[in-house]
Design brief:
This protein is an alpha/beta fold. Helices cover about 20% and strands about 35% of the residues. α1 packs across α2. The structure holds guanosine-5'-monophosphate (5GP). The site of guanosine-5'-monophosphate has 19 residues, from β5, α3 and β8.
Length: about 180
Amino acid sequence: MNPMDYTIEKFISEKEIKDKIAKLADQINADFDGKEIVAICTLKGSFVFFSDLIRSLALPVRCEFLGLSSYGNQTTTSGEVKVTLDLNSQIEGKHVLIVEDIVDSGITLQFILKYLEARNPASISTAALLSKPDALKVDVDVEYVGFEIQNQFVVGYGLDYAESLRGLPYIGILHLEE
Ligand code: 5GP
């Protein structure tokens, strides 16, 4: 990829992300008061959000990682979800919190919910840093949403473009040069 092929428009700042995570953590702390949760990081895009979110929680948290791929190197969804890394421990009877970077069509989250529900957790809920309500193609519930955004392709803070740009500390809108 040639870095001249795109520009990045600054969209959500580090401070805005930090403040939003503190608010989400307050809600999760209140809702799960006195309980242990298993937080599931959906790789790869969620790892930065996940790291910040779990450090803001005042609950006993176990961390699990679920590797998924749905996008390949494109900026539009293929609609096909593959598990590339499975959980390391059982979640039966546990309170599960799926931590997602972004819900676009909702197909990935719908897949994850079915995949995990089959393992009989005590409860299952989802935190997504970003959601694109206009892009939703399936009916999925997200209990904790950071920012609702328009139908734009965003990068940074864990989110990639062709595996690059995950390390940007803020969220930007990607503009591809024609
Ligand atoms: P969905 O299955 O909801 O259409 O897509 C979910 C996954 O697609 C996300 O976990 C993320 O990896 C990827 N994705 C969706 N929208 C964007 C976006 O705007 N930017 C990036 N970098 N990835 C996205």
